Amino acid sequence: MQTTAAGEAITEALRVIGHAQPRCGATKVVAIDGPSGAGKTDLTAALAEHLPGAHVLHMDDLYPGWDGLAQAVADLHDKILAPVARGELAAYRRWDWEHDRYADWHSLPATPLLLVEGAGSGAGRNADLESVLIWLEADRDVRFRRGIRRDAEAYRPHWRRWAEQEEALFLADATRSRADLIVDTTTP
Question: What are the CA-CA distances from residue 26 to residues 48, 127, 155 (Å)?
Answer without folding.
Answer: 19, 16, 38
